[in-house]
Design goal:
The chain has 281 residues and is mostly helical. It contains 14 helices and 2 strands; from the N terminus they run H-H-H-H-H-H-H-H-H-H-E-H-E-H-H-H.
Length: 281
């Protein structure tokens, strides 16, 4: 049902789940013309191959490797509601550039604002319909420019915002690999978990700062080694397992791992994140 609704959105604009039947039948409160069975099946046949690749980017299909990388990042962020606009972009001129532009916009919005509102989803649905109708994406994405954020806002939030592990993983990988579509390499760890022994001065702030970018680390091992939850244990057991590009020297340079150290490393990562997500604009 979700696939049908997303495909129909590219023709009719944003469709709420409860309104899908009325839109298809052209009845009730819907003001749009109905879909004939043949037209609907043709639309679904056209959309299905690339939609399956959005769900599982390792499948074969019409999407290019660059486009599959965008799908993979959206999956890592657990963003499903934007598949209608990705469907529309896949059929537009210069589709890969459009998908990259959308990814930049979405990442900035997620970091600084909030993507999960009904109004934002509606606007992306309207943009999807416009892209499908016009065959180009530039004007439609420009209409969403108010959802964008300035680099200074982005840097501040990357540095200081407490984020979920999916977002932290994608951000850190993007910085280490210098790419907005990083490979899903490494496993994310908190250098010092929130339930570790913090100093009296840091204890009250640890619950917040422990989930910021400066307290994260990407390692090659899927399980945290025994004894690595303390600062000394981390340096001995987990730090050597870093992925390529990790800022190990900067992390290891601190005698103690406290809020000040987290903030310092986080600021450096945030500076580099701005270059990745705004660098060519």
């Amino acid at each position: 049902v979700q696939f049908i609704r997303h495909a129909v959105t590219t023709r009719k604009g944003h469709v709420l789940p409860r309104d899908l039947y009325d839109v298809l039948a052209g009845r009730g409160t819907s003001s749009v013309s109905p879909f004939g069975p043949t037209d609907l099946l043709s639309l679904l046949e056209e959309a299905l191959p690339v939609y399956l690749q959005m769900i599982e980017p390792t499948r074969d299909g019409p999407a290019t490797q660059e486009q599959l990388a965008v799908f993979s990042v959206f999956n890592s962020l657990n963003v499903v509601s934007l598949r209608p606009i990705l469907l529309a972009l896949s059929r537009s001129a210069d589709a890969t550039s459009g998908m990259n532009a959308l990814l930049r916009l979405v990442m900035r919005r997620i970091v600084v604002g909030n993507l999960g509102t009904g109004n934002v989803e509606r606007r992306f649905g309207q943009a999807a319909e416009r892209i499908a109708r016009e065959g180009r994406w530039e004007t439609a994405l420009e209409s969403l420019s108010d959802l964008n954020h300035e680099p200074v806002e982005f840097r501040t939030q990357v540095h200081r915002r407490s984020m979920n592990r999916n977002l932290l993983s994608v951000l850190r990988r993007s910085v280490l690999q210098d790419s907005i579509t990083p490979e899903p390499d490494g496993f994310l760890y908190l250098i010092k978990p929130r339930d570790s022994d913090w100093s009296a001065g840091d204890q009250d702030r640890a619950a917040y700062w422990s989930s910021t970018i400066g307290n994260t680390f990407l390692a090659t091992e899927a399980r945290r080694p025994i004894g690595s939850s303390t600062w000394l244990g981390f340096k001995e057991h987990l730090l050597p397992l870093h992925v390529e590009g990790e800022v190990t020297e900067m992390i290891a340079s601190h005698e103690e791992w406290n809020i000040e150290a987290i903030s310092e490393v986080g600021f450096e990562i945030a500076e580099r994140a701005v270059k990745v997500w705004y660098g060519d604009q």
